[in-house]
Specification:
463 residues, 16% strand, flat, disordered N terminus, 7-stranded mixed beta sheet, alpha/beta
Length: 463
């Protein structure tokens, strides 16, 4: 691949502070590229130069400026290409914490000729040097962003290459099938062992099943990383804020007996069994003339649309109204759970009453004041989107990767349909060809500058 075409500065030496900004015990400045050692040597003075120090061996020394003044006592270590994070020569200088020293160190290296690294450029180089593939590079980003242990494990699983292996397996199966089909197409007179179409169909169905499983594992990973957004909706005064607070175990929203007090969308996040759940408490969805409340209602509608899941609260102690009937209608096409609230006081509305207007909905009865019921509600919300047993199998996947896998799946399913309809083998072959194209893009074997830029620009500088 002619990488230089895309990346003009591919051969220079980059540097950045690789630890987080802020006060800390140490800060690490990292260099990568062919002149990493030369530049580092100019600012690092140990008993011996780094060049005479074995790779991966920490050498004690001083950070020095152009006049030879000692600025800090530091540690230096180098990694010889290709056995480094980026696949190039890498040097790390571990300074004492505080950004002042690390910034000074970086400045000195830039004076020597190093270039300030772009966001994600170290990981980008690892990818370009073939150390990791794109799914692994994106997992590195997942590790930085992970909000919970489970999300971290899913990212680590992907970084270790488990997702890539699964994808490569599917790729090879498709390649074998394509080779067979195309050989028959191109050389019909040759005596190539012919794969009967029911055999091809069997294999394709197997690939389709594998792909569906992979997509669901990636969806789990996405939920672990990005969390679930739950919009709490319903008429005013049914107990939305009370349930929001109970879910968050804190009094965040103002709970009052006056209808229409929540005029904004208030967000709060919890991590439940490793899954970040973002709750959005919305203004009551009802027709109103109050200007401020109207703004609240339109924000509530936005939250309603953007959520992964809606929690519809109903006041069980009051009769259903036209607003409820309207909401039930709207919810029919959106994933949701219904909670009949205020179970601690006499009830007028039963689950059966609700089934008349929402026949397919999952319904639970609870009280905002019942802690156990609130815990069970969290469980229900998570189960609605993913099964708990699947959490340990999640892959860190980005929306891009899931979209690519879905494209592959639709190509494979089209190929299956072609065979079933007795269409010419050329069509089957071209579907499989397209499927492989998407797999190539997924792994980064086939890419362009825009794709690479879109992925790596999400990283922080220094990674
Ligand atoms: P929102 O307007 O839907 O957010 O409703 P709020 O959370 O502000 O609650 C309205 C009123 O209902 C308040 O007086 C709450 O104390 C009361 N309330 C909320 N949940 C329950 C419940 O489970 N049982 C009882 N008895 N009252 C509740």
């Amino acid at each position: 691949m002619a990488l230089e075409k895309y990346f003009l500065n591919y051969n220079d030496t980059i540097a950045s502070i690789s630890t987080a900004w802020g006060e800390a015990g140490i800060a690490i400045v990292r260099l990568s590229g062919p002149q990493a050692l030369d530049f580092a040597e100019k600012v690092f003075k140990g008993i011996k130069p780094l060049k005479e120090t074995p790779p991966r061996y920490m050498r004690n020394g001083f950070l020095v400026n152009e006049n030879g003044d000692h600025l800090d006592e530091v540690l230096g270590v180098w990694f010889r290409a290709p056995k480094s994070y980026t696949g190039e020569d890498v040097v790390e200088i571990h300074c004492h914490g505080g950004l002042l020293v690390a910034s000074k160190c970086l400045e000195l290296l830039i004076d020597q000729g190093a270039r300030l690294a772009e966001p994600g450029e170290f990981t980008q180089r690892a990818f370009l040097n073939g150390r990791i593939d794109l799914t692994q590079a994106e997992a590195a980003l997942g590790i930085i962003r992970a909000k919970s242990d489970e999300a971290l494990r899913a990212a680590a699983r992907t970084l270790r290459g488990e997702l890539s292996i699964k994808i490569a397996e599917i790729y090879d199966l498709l390649l074998n099938l394509s080779a067979n089909l195309e050989a028959n197409l191109d050389f019909p007179e040759e005596d190539i062992p012919f794969l009967p179409s029911d055999e091809v169909l069997k294999k394709l169905n197997q690939i389709s099943t594998n792909l569906k499983r992979l997509i669901s594992r990636c969806n789990v990973g996405k939920v672990l990383r990005d969390g679930i957004k739950v919009a709490i909706v319903g008429r005013p005064n049914v107990g939305k804020s009370s349930i929001f607070n109970a879910l968050l175990e804190e009094a965040r929203a103002i709970v009052t007996p006056i209808p229409g007090t929540t005029r904004d969308v208030i967000e709060g996040m919890i991590v439940y069994k490793g899954i970040p759940i973002i709750f959005m408490d919305t203004a009551g969805l009802r027709a109103t003339n109050d200007v401020v409340e109207t703004i609240g209602v339109s924000m509530a509608q936005k939250a309603f649309r953007e959520a992964d899941l809606r929690l519809w609260i109903i006041d069980g102690s009051e009769a259903l109204t036209q607003d409820d009937i309207n909401l039930a209608e709207e919810l029919k096409t959106h994933p949701h759970i219904i909670a009949i609230n205020k179970a601690d006081i006499p009830q007028i509305v039963s689950p059966d009453d609700l089934r008349e207007i929402a026949p397919d909905s999952e319904i639970t009865v609870l009280s905002a004041f019942d802690k156990l019921a609130i815990e069970k509600l969290k469980e229900r919300l998570v189960n609605k989107l993913i099964k708990h047993s699947a959490i340990n199998e999640g892959f860190n996947a980005t929306a891009r990767q899931i979209e690519m896998l879905k494209n592959v799946l639709s190509c494979v399913d089209n190929a299956i349909a072609s065979i079933n309809m007795g269409e010419p083998e050329e069509l089957v072959a071209s579907n499989l060809y397209e499927a492989r194209y998407y797999l190539d893009r997924l792994l980064g074997r086939n890419f362009d500058e825009d794709l690479i830029h879109a992925i790596f620009s999400q990283f922080c500088v220094g990674k």
